[in-house]
Design brief:
By secondary structure, this protein is an alpha+beta fold. It has helices spanning 17-29, 134-138, 158-163, 177-184, 194-201, and strands spanning 40-41, 62-68, 80-83, 86-90, 95-99, 102-114, 121-132, 148-155. Strands 1, 2, 3, 4, 5, 6, 7 and 8 form an 8-stranded mixed β-sheet that branches. Strand 5 and strand 6 (102-114) form a beta hairpin. The relative contact order is 0.15.
Length: 203
């Protein structure tokens, strides 16, 4: 646990909500073969969120874990979940995750607060918790014990801190050499052929 996964240059583990439900959580619950090298099992509520990045298998700015809901969890009845020095607080209603016209799971958003519920201090740590529908789970012939969920942890504002800079565009990405040439052209109408563009490029 905690050994980092090395991806080839140019690759990033960036699954969609549907990917997380169908290709990871569903296969784990049904004990089907799946590519699990990017997601590790952990008792998420034993840790503060800032301790979790070091326990994830992959790097980056989002961290993924399989976990089980607390023993006192009851559907739609728990808003606060104790965890280490604080608690996770549910912030919104469940959002359905669909595959075409079929709802295959749910996503629930939580925010971490330091201190005991219902008070506490809000932090920038957020969690998306993915779960299967009960009807889907009941079809499993061999159920994994407990109520398994897949959690994505991230620190809000981390992207903007890492991408800030005077040379970046609105997406936080640096301008390429070709972008700079296009933005430097006063009148694109002056370029009427590929040869004109080539002459501009290598001028």
């Amino acid at each position: 646990m905690g050994d980092k996964i090395s991806l080839p240059p140019g690759f990033k583990f960036f699954p969609t909500d549907k990917d997380l439900i169908l290709h990871y959580l569903y296969k784990k619950v049904k004990l089907l073969p799946c590519q699990s090298d990017f997601i590790t099992e952990i008792d998420l509520y034993n840790y503060n969120p800032w301790e979790l990045p070091g326990k994830a298998l992959g790097g980056g700015k989002e961290w993924y874990f399989y976990s089980q809901r607390p023993n006192n969890y009851k559907k739609n009845s728990i808003q606060y979940r104790p965890a280490a020095s604080g608690h996770w607080r549910v912030t919104a209603m469940d959002e359905p995750v669909s595959n075409g016209n079929t709802v295959v799971g749910c996503k629930r958003s939580l925010v971490f607060y330091t201190g005991k519920a219902p008070s506490g201090t809000k932090t920038d740590w957020i969690m998306d918790e993915y779960s299967l529908l009960e009807s889907t789970t009941r079809t499993c012939k061999k159920r994994v014990s407990g109520d398994w969920v897949l959690c994505r942890i991230q620190e809000r504002g981390l992207d903007s801190e890492l991408n800030c800079g005077d040379d970046d565009d609105d997406d936080g990405r640096e301008l390429s050499y070709l972008d700079e040439i296009f933005f430097s052209l006063d009148n694109l109408d002056e370029i009427s052929s590929p040869s004109d563009f080539t002459a501009t490029l290598f001028h």
